[in-house]
Write a structure and sequence with these properties.
The chain has 8 helices and 6 strands. It has a 6-stranded parallel sheet with strand order 2-1-3-4-5-6, sandwiched between helices. Helix 5 (about 110-120) links the parallel strand 3 (about 100-105) and strand 4 (about 125-135). The chain is α/β, with parallel strands linked by helices and about 230 residues long. Helix content is about 40%, strand content about 15%. The radius of gyration is 23 Å and the shape is globular.
Length: about 230
């Protein structure tokens, strides 16, 4: 009888161990929660949907959909106005997620509102990483084609008062980690060096078009590594 009871106990112990091994591990959700939420800012003549590929990539790499915020705004308005709206968006994201800071990932003209927010609106207190992809950080000759139509485009002209003020002094203020990714065959950024930022990690990604800079998977992998 005692031997029979020991056999039952042994079998039960083995079954319990097997069930425990089959349970899903909880490390993944804990790891996902450790990420800063990301706010994506598009450029001129664009919308939040321009980030669809990267949002999917981040989700595949462990981010949850509730940590990824592709934001749309009126791209014709002044980048200063957009920056004030971005400040509100960041506070909304922090309230939703309970995070202390966000990462800002921007494309093209989105770099201007993002940098204005950091420099002039106290954004450095709420941003951990700032990533500029094909950012019009020092203007572009191409902006002359639309500067007479839109305030936002006029501000991208190389000698605009907006850019002179934005780039005066420290281009990478605060304790934010900055990175600027640029291409040597970006037809929208002229000259190519305009996409660089003094004080940032400036990364040449090779020949990637302006339109593909924020959906190219190779660029994504570098951005993902930078965000840690």
């Amino acid at each position: 009888m005692q031997r029979h009871k020991r056999r039952i106990a042994t079998a039960a112990s083995a079954m319990t161990a097997s069930l425990l091994l089959s349970l899903p591990l909880t490390a993944s959700p804990a790891h996902a929660a450790s990420h800063d939420p990301i706010v994506f800012v598009h450029g001129i003549s664009s919308s939040a949907s321009t980030w669809d590929d990267w949002v999917a990539d981040f989700e595949a790499d462990g981010y949850s959909s509730s940590q990824l915020f592709a934001w749309s705004y009126d791209w014709t308005q002044s980048n200063a106005t957009t920056a004030r709206q971005l400040a509100t968006e960041v506070k909304t994201v922090l309230a939703k997620t309970g995070a202390a800071k966000v990462d800002l990932v921007v494309h093209s003209m989105g770099a201007l509102s993002g940098r204005y927010y950091l420099k002039n609106l106290g954004g450095t207190a709420y941003v951990d990483h700032f990533v500029s992809t094909a950012g019009v950080n020092h203007g572009t000759s191409v902006a002359s084609l639309c500067g007479w139509l839109y305030t936002s485009c006029e501000e991208m002209e190389t000698d605009s008062s907006f850019l002179k003020a934005l780039n005066s002094g420290d281009e990478t203020p605060g304790s934010v980690a900055y990175a600027a990714y640029w291409s040597n065959c970006d037809a929208a950024i002229d000259p190519d060096s305009s996409a660089e930022l003094s004080g940032a990690s400036d990364v040449g990604v090779g020949c990637v078009s302006h339109e593909n800079m924020n959906n190219d998977h190779g660029v994504y992998e570098q951005v993902r590594a930078f965000l840690g």
